[in-house]
Write a structure and sequence with these properties.
The structure holds two protein chains of two kinds.
Chain A lengths: L2 H24 L15 H13 L5 H13 L3 H14 L4 H14 L2 H12 L6 H14 L3 H10 L4 H13 L3 H14 L4 H12 L7 H12 L10 H11 L2 H14 L3 H14 L6 H17 L4 H19 L3 H13 L3 H12 L9 H16 L2 H21 L3 H14 L4 H13 L3 H14 L4 H10 L1
Chain B lengths: L2 H18 L9 H20 L20 E5 L8 H7 L17 E7 L8 E6 L4 E12 L2 H7 L4 H6 L3 E11 L5 E7 L8 E6 L11 E9 L2 E11 L2 E7 L8 E6 L6 E9 L2 E9 L8 E2 L8 E6 L5 E7 L5 E8 L7 E7 L8 E6 L15 E9 L2 E9 L3 E7 L8 E6 L12 E7 L2 E9 L5 E7 L8 E6 L12 E6 L1
Antiparallel strand pairs in B: 1-28, 2-3, 3-4, 4-5, 6-7, 7-8, 8-9, 10-11, 11-12, 12-13, 14-15, 15-16, 16-17, 18-19, 19-20, 20-21, 22-23, 23-24, 24-25, 26-27, 27-28
The chains are: A mainly alpha, B mainly beta.
Amino acid sequence: MSRVRVILLIIAVLELVLIGMRYQENGGFSAPVKSRVNKLERGNRLAVRQMEADLDTHSIDDWVNLGQVYSTFALMPEAEYCFRRAARLGSLTLEQQFKYGICLSRRGKIEKAIQIVMPVANSNNELAVHANQQIGFDYLRLDRRVEAEKYLRKAGADPISELSLARILIREDRVSEAIHVLDGLIARDPDSMRAHQMRAWAYEIPGDTYDEREAQASYDNSMHASGMVIIHPLSRDWDVETVASMGAAKHMMASSVALQKDEFAQAIDSGRVAFEMIEPLWRPGYAKAMINAHLANGQANAHLANGQAVEALDYLSKWLIHDGESTRLWELAGDAFLVMGDQDKAESAWLRGTRIRASKTVEANAEICRKLEQLYETQGNRAKATLFRAWHQYESGKLQWRDNNVRSALVLFTQASDVLTQNEQVWFYLAESQRALSDRTSARESYKKCLLLNKYHGRAIVGLSLVN
Amino acid sequence: MCASDDLQTAADNSEVINADSIDRLHRPSVVTILLFCMCGLFALTWGMMGVEPALNSEIPVLTRHPEVHWSQTVVPVKKHIPAQFSQLLQVSDVPFDAAIAPHEIRITNVQLVDIDGDEKQEILVCDAAKNTVTAYHYRGTEEVDLQKQLETNPDDLNEVLANGSVRHKWDQTLIGDKLIAPAHATVVDVDQDGDQDIVVSTLGDLMPSDELIGTVTLFEKVDEGYQRRVLLQDVRRVADVQFGDFDGDGDTDLVVAVFGYARGGVVILENMGDGLYRDKEIITRPGIVHVPVADYDNDGDLDIGAIVTQDEEEVWALENDGQGNFAPRVLFMTDNFDVGGGGLIAADIDQDGKMDLLMSQGDNLEYGHGWPQPYHGVIWLRNQGNWKFEGEQIGHLGGAYGTAATDVDGDGDTDVVIVSMSNDYANPRNPSIVWLENDENEFNRQHLIDTNPTELIAVGCGDVNGDGEIDIVAGQFRIPLSVVEDQPITVWIKE
């Protein structure tokens, strides 16, 4: 054999060895995935890249975990590829199969997703309820109502499935069936806003079940109930868990834990790392955590108070410019100024906060009024303290009303109305509370007082007509 | 003799030739050639095994229309921090607004409309990070003095050169600030005094919230600017206000889209004279984004359309009896809770004298990271008369959000422009703004306008530079969890 042939043979053998090694490394002929993480913040980008580097290509679990992370970040072709690779390595567990189905569903391959999830739905696995719900939702996305109903019913007594089922039944003009489902839901959860709301809609449908009074009663209930349920399948909880376990969120979680343990310096350090990890983005939620940490540090260490308050105000300034003002922002700004001993600025910040409304379930409006009351009390300004006590009662009453604590709300609105006699909204909410508790006479008087201040107050006009 | 014997003989001969004659052409044996090829094949295989799989969305790549061209320009957006705030929060010697933080990019609405009666259209912009409503006036172009630029601001020279030597000039008028998350500004002479007032809808919070945080604020045009007055508060998040004389008494009433979150509805503000309004809720449904007003049944009075979102995904009409009493009708519904209704506009697309509706769907941002779905795009609700509307998907664009109807190509019919907020922008070839060409009321051709900037939420069409051509303006709303280039307001000027 010539020397050339020997060399070529050696090269070929070497190449075969390299191919074998790469096959082993890749877990097959296809290369591992490298995702398009260009749109992710720094921490998540690094974490995903690390997962890709650490991937054991022979491990079904690793492929599924990576696929799930990709699904969370809507890198769907990458996610599907991972699940396909996992399936090629062997049988997936029911949970893994469910995750594969969710990936396909989000990718828009809905019919295939249903096929993949079906064995989970038909199993005795604890995920069967969620799988049935998922299939029901997927059929809704295909506008196939009959199949959707079947699987939503199979999902059983689950509020999200039941509300979706009720919606179908209302649209099918099977109103009494819908009401039956909703009544069951309300019996289990009287504070379910959505159930009351849909019940009102059901009774509005013309036909045998039409009932204006029931519709009005359900509508009223929905107005002061706080149980919010929106379509939120289990997979979205998994997304939240995934994000919380990586990147910036991991450090922010460490910061919160440290703060709870009164380890302020640690809380601040971890928070700083979290901020580096969200670059080039910025988040007011993270700023709030840092402000709390700095203010707590300042309160615990008097000699640091001024510096910590300045740090807090720096975050507040950035938050203001980045996202705009909010009630919570001004409340915290007032707190920071108070730590610095600047009562005038604290007052100004809180007064600005009273000009706007707090969002979500934040109680900032009530808190600001309470803090102003205390501030004026310490300054000996009784008139203003009394005024802001009344505002605090009114704002607290609205929170109680929102949370369906109507009796507590009534007490607070009554107290507020003693001082805020010229405020139409105080009289309106007092009237609404009285009507909700069937005190028609008092409600009538309160509505009238509201209408004396604003004769075009539409909701008071409606309320008065209901008690007259 | 078998074939392998032939092969061996040939190989042997070739070796002889190679060995005996160095000055003749090199002719390796077949075995050597095969070995060589094998090495090559193995090398190729090894190489291919290292190539990562091509993973991209399967969105069809669009091309531009060969005859319709625009040039893209950016409207310069200045920082805005109310003096009251900067004075209050100033605690060190560093100037408060000196680049300590940028505004987040959250343009919620753009439109081209003449707000000052000079017969030129301004770009009216709602910005929910600065919490302002601002009008941008186009002032023509100017040549950039490169020498002066070099002397005064050399750092920006590269950027200037990249954008060409001609610069578009803009002025701006602040209509109002300290508006928490303005969603829409409606230009209307609400008090019928001959000038244009502006009614602003504010959400109170961009993020989902069911609290009573929405407002309707009137900016009444007066000699020295605008006088501000709150018309409605203590309602859930307000997304839109439109107007019309609904009760036929000669004045201008308003209709309010209360988006809320899980609770919302449509509220009429009946004009009672002297600047007073009576509020009346006419339907309760969550997630009402827009309430386009038109005479949908051609009976001479103004009706109201309403898009219901937040899982319900319906389009309603509120039929006016001419006295300001409204009968609700469901025009369209889908069981697909996931379509993500983004908006509703009224336009007579087929020019048959019956007002149609265009509904965009593609808002899939509930969880921060969305993926384009096959049903994302635009639905044409074609008015068949007698309150029958036939739905047909005419545009396909992942993450579709804002829609505008206009004659893009100047052929006399109505085309459609769509922008996308949450397309698969990890792939830079995916479009962020497209137009649908109307071809005898068929929309089979979808053309690319641009792939950049991304994450566009709002679009408006009109004549920015007064040349009689249709220009396009779009507003960017950066998704909180995604990293993309900032470009708040972009104008495509038709060439």
